[in-house]
Amino acid sequence: MGFAKELWQQQQDQGFDFVGDKYVCAECFGDCVIQEFIDDNAEAKTCSYCGNSSSRPIAAHMDTVMAFILEGIEFEWGDPDNEGVLYETAEGGYQGKVIDSWDLITDEIWDELEIRTDSLREDIINSIRDRQWCQRNFWELEPEQALIFSWEQFVQQVKYHARYVFFRVDDDSDTLWDTNTTPLSKMLDELGRMASDLDLVEVLEPGTRIWRVRIHDKSERFDTAKELGTVPPDKAKYSNRMSPAGIPMFYGALDELTALKETVEGREQDSTIATIAPWRIIHQMRVLNLERLPKVPSLFDESKRESRPRLQFLYSFRNDISKPIIKDGQEHIEHVPTQIVAEYFRHMYRDTEGNRVTGILYPSARNSGGIACVLFVKNEGCCDTLDEAQMDGERGKQKYLLLEKNQIKGVTFEVRCGLNVTEDPLFGS
Known about the structure:
The strands form five sheets. Strands 9, 11, 15, 16, 17 and 18 form a six-stranded mixed β-sheet that branches. The chain is elongated, with a radius of gyration of 28 Å. It has 14 helices and 18 strands. The protein starts with a helix and ends in a 6-residue tail after the last strand.
């Protein structure tokens, strides 16, 4: 009885009530951390909720699981009275976003828990009582929202206010009303810290294939690295997603279809011709990989949940920088923020080992599931043969990309009713 009384007092202090003599198995939750906790604490052979049974223990006591769940919830949610939320009876109650336990479970963290039975959901809600909840540190932006707000302020600044000297603009402004926000002049450094802390830089090994497309008139034919590689500076007349006019970069993709769609979709011509050229990386390249971001950790993962806000922000950031841009005359303005980010990672950023990065991988805006890339490789970094690469390497001129000449092909395509591609008979291996 003494132990039961102690457990009851502990539950009261932690803010939840007894569920009763019930046991829950890992299959009743979708969250892998909760599943692992249940497996580690299993003591019953039958689940009280789904009916699963086994010859070995598979279900943990529901009160034990509730204590674990509540610890995770209270990492991001708290009591409005303790968080300083103003309560005005005449104004209808709490002056801010305050929710009850039902809304907390069903609206805010439903996707986190992934509860798979109705009776389990009811017991969880009843166990944490009819409490009121608000975000932790109520008077500050949530860390994820603070980062998103800081990025949005940075975008507005470089697009419409100070483009070339934004890093010298006075940060003491109304945009810093929240202590969680990042000053405009520090936004790029914050992105760099996230890239390092979350290990977003990876190595593309020699042999990796990159596809690149060049659009041209049917009367033209191109088959050399100089013609199909990065354009020279005097030919870089147009602003692109990661590069302003005059500063050429190598745009490509990790598969042929993505390279083609990234290049031709959104163009005004109904039909035209393009050369598709595969390239092989011949010198190890470190790239910032925004396509394979780590999964946002579980709210219930004590060892990793501190990184949740930054990863939630990075998913939003990635969507922003890879979204399709309409070519309506304003695209050179819309590209400015991503051009600045690319320039920062090209010239200023160093990874945890002090190495530069030579490109960025990002989700294709035109082909779902495809991976597009921009490589910081000049025209001189593209070559036709390995002998050429070796000779230039001996002269201190590193080559990075080898054109696979026997795989070059031409295609005609129509974009009026989707991308219809036909291989052109004038081209071939």
